């Protein structure tokens, strides 16, 4: 057995335990030190992920391949960015405790386990580890009613989704007698017709995972939780866990259930269309930037699902690139949201951004870049994401999906442009508090990545190509 | 024959106590019926030959979960009759939803085919192991050790979460501080007075407690006492 396969996960977990013990034993407030140590652990794990060998291990529950590597690097990057945002935010809000980075770390371990799942049991346990830590992080600002509500709401609905997912897993197990992806694939390709029970099982698994990526009609929790949770947590929630849930969706649907693609393709198509349209329409009346981002994330998940609906290697590649693009845009936008503080208190209305173009031109420029990128204006990163999924869907013969995607992009442009208009053309109100260097760094860095993505397109696209090829072995 | 009788006995008592769990007026009775239901379910598992599962059910569910429920019910003053108030109002809607779900379940079950060789599977012996416990142990601790450890992480996260969300550092809480205890000298608390025969302390100004500089400082901040103690000794 090749135990070094899971070396990144093991190292990250052990450093999490060490940081926890260090934090408990420290007499003075160890939050900043623990956050920095966690960041170092993320970097170390990232290096180990790149060096980790390929193969299946641990009695066929764990796999290391290009796909897992791509997803793990993305989720580590998302977690590290959120952690940097949280360091300043938590200190200013007085909720800085050293458990925050530790929980974020364990949640990231969960996302990495999910990305490497080769068995439905691994899928479930990774998902639970990741979600449980996020439920706690949502309620981390426990003295604020909104935060506690967000935690409870996400917990109750998330448990329900986990239950549905488990029910689906049990049905699939009942059909095939195995939970290993390879075994399932063999069983499916051996049987002439697909039994009803299995189809119901697949549907339940899709429902459970669609809940985690907040696709319509399983999105109800998203706006409230996004608004209530502390913004660094929201930026994490919108990044790493969604990427991990997408990793599972892609891996499970393309791998074991790949031969049954005609059974689930329509379902994914419908979910994708509904998410895109709902994300575009429901965001229009929003006044809170956090709720706006929640609906925007629902819409973006719809676009990313479009690549999966195509069920081709090109589609999967499109989805993978879209996820990378979305992760960086999203982290940058949330850096701007974290920077929205006036007289020591966080503000979150879109109207509060008025005149940012004059009071803080750098921040406004970054925000404008993110908003234009989310619309999909070339040459920003969002354009390439959309281009790739649209072209994959067209090649796969799904013109309706593409039309819906373009229509909802146009509708969505309205509310993204409104943010830009408020920043540059509305009468300036009082300036924001000076943001911390870490927050400015994240917003500027993500602005650069988003703006100059054309330079990164080559490496990202070849990594995504290699990752997508693994799924169709 | 005897197995059949025992099965029916356990099954009837199980369903009866399950009904009582939801219908009993007193929540404490509900929890007690829940324990009874768990015991009967354990009996059913024993008949099916799953002795390990039966024991786990008794240990984990009766021993921990049900007792925890009992504590919650008795210690938290939850008004259960108030929780039940909406029952009559929501019953028709709930029943309608339940009916729809049941019909759907029946429809999908009618299209259900069970593989012909499945019937014997539950009674098949585990290869290479003498008992269920041994087989499970080998699976959990050897084959699926990765998942086992990951489950451990899940529990750890749950524990951290419970502490993070509930533990509050109250300044008024009384804690033992060994350093302060060791730094105490008799002069902090004891006052020696020489009294002549027949005199009372009142004549000497009475007891002045607490004595020393700590009189002006609140007692709950022991750090100050340590700082002050040397000059009192000198």
From TrEMBL, chain A:
<feature type="transmembrane region" description="Helical">
    <location>
        <begin position="33"/>
        <end position="52"/>
    </location>
</feature>
<feature type="transmembrane region" description="Helical">
    <location>
        <begin position="98"/>
        <end position="115"/>
    </location>
</feature>
<keyword id="KW-0830">Ubiquinone</keyword>
<dbReference type="GO" id="GO:0008137">
    <property type="term" value="F:NADH dehydrogenase (ubiquinone) activity"/>
</dbReference>
<feature type="domain" description="NADH:quinone oxidoreductase/Mrp antiporter transmembrane">
    <location>
        <begin position="117"/>
        <end position="412"/>
    </location>
</feature>
<comment type="subunit">
    <text>NDH-1 is composed of 14 different subunits. Subunits NuoA, H, J, K, L, M, N constitute the membrane sector of the complex.</text>
</comment>
<dbReference type="Pfam" id="PF00361">
    <property type="entry name" value="Proton_antipo_M"/>
</dbReference>
<dbReference type="GO" id="GO:0012505">
    <property type="term" value="C:endomembrane system"/>
</dbReference>
<feature type="transmembrane region" description="Helical">
    <location>
        <begin position="67"/>
        <end position="86"/>
    </location>
</feature>
<protein>
    <recommendedName>
        <fullName>NADH-quinone oxidoreductase subunit N</fullName>
        <ecNumber>7.1.1.-</ecNumber>
    </recommendedName>
</protein>
<dbReference type="GO" id="GO:0048038">
    <property type="term" value="F:quinone binding"/>
</dbReference>
<feature type="transmembrane region" description="Helical">
    <location>
        <begin position="6"/>
        <end position="26"/>
    </location>
</feature>
<dbReference type="InterPro" id="IPR001750">
    <property type="entry name" value="ND/Mrp_TM"/>
</dbReference>
<feature type="transmembrane region" description="Helical">
    <location>
        <begin position="320"/>
        <end position="340"/>
    </location>
</feature>
<comment type="similarity">
    <text>Belongs to the complex I subunit 2 family.</text>
</comment>
<feature type="transmembrane region" description="Helical">
    <location>
        <begin position="361"/>
        <end position="384"/>
    </location>
</feature>
<feature type="transmembrane region" description="Helical">
    <location>
        <begin position="152"/>
        <end position="176"/>
    </location>
</feature>
<keyword id="KW-0520">NAD</keyword>
<keyword id="KW-0812">Transmembrane</keyword>
<feature type="transmembrane region" description="Helical">
    <location>
        <begin position="266"/>
        <end position="285"/>
    </location>
</feature>
<keyword id="KW-0472">Membrane</keyword>
<comment type="function">
    <text>NDH-1 shuttles electrons from NADH, via FMN and iron-sulfur (Fe-S) centers, to quinones in the respiratory chain. The immediate electron acceptor for the enzyme in this species is believed to be ubiquinone. Couples the redox reaction to proton translocation (for every two electrons transferred, four hydrogen ions are translocated across the cytoplasmic membrane), and thus conserves the redox energy in a proton gradient.</text>
</comment>
Automatic annotation (TrEMBL), chain B:
<keyword id="KW-0812">Transmembrane</keyword>
<dbReference type="GO" id="GO:0048038">
    <property type="term" value="F:quinone binding"/>
</dbReference>
<dbReference type="InterPro" id="IPR001457">
    <property type="entry name" value="NADH_UbQ/plastoQ_OxRdtase_su6"/>
</dbReference>
<comment type="function">
    <text>NDH-1 shuttles electrons from NADH, via FMN and iron-sulfur (Fe-S) centers, to quinones in the respiratory chain. Couples the redox reaction to proton translocation (for every two electrons transferred, four hydrogen ions are translocated across the cytoplasmic membrane), and thus conserves the redox energy in a proton gradient.</text>
</comment>
<feature type="region of interest" description="Disordered">
    <location>
        <begin position="202"/>
        <end position="234"/>
    </location>
</feature>
<comment type="similarity">
    <text>Belongs to the complex I subunit 6 family.</text>
</comment>
<protein>
    <recommendedName>
        <fullName>NADH-quinone oxidoreductase subunit J</fullName>
        <ecNumber>7.1.1.-</ecNumber>
    </recommendedName>
</protein>
<feature type="transmembrane region" description="Helical">
    <location>
        <begin position="6"/>
        <end position="24"/>
    </location>
</feature>
<keyword id="KW-1003">Cell membrane</keyword>
<keyword id="KW-0560">Oxidoreductase</keyword>
<dbReference type="GO" id="GO:0005886">
    <property type="term" value="C:plasma membrane"/>
</dbReference>
<keyword id="KW-0520">NAD</keyword>
<keyword id="KW-0472">Membrane</keyword>
<feature type="transmembrane region" description="Helical">
    <location>
        <begin position="31"/>
        <end position="50"/>
    </location>
</feature>
<keyword id="KW-1133">Transmembrane helix</keyword>
<dbReference type="InterPro" id="IPR042106">
    <property type="entry name" value="Nuo/plastoQ_OxRdtase_6_NuoJ"/>
</dbReference>
<keyword id="KW-0874">Quinone</keyword>
<feature type="transmembrane region" description="Helical">
    <location>
        <begin position="146"/>
        <end position="167"/>
    </location>
</feature>
<dbReference type="Pfam" id="PF00499">
    <property type="entry name" value="Oxidored_q3"/>
</dbReference>
<dbReference type="GO" id="GO:0008137">
    <property type="term" value="F:NADH dehydrogenase (ubiquinone) activity"/>
</dbReference>
<feature type="transmembrane region" description="Helical">
    <location>
        <begin position="90"/>
        <end position="112"/>
    </location>
</feature>
<dbReference type="GO" id="GO:0016491">
    <property type="term" value="F:oxidoreductase activity"/>
</dbReference>
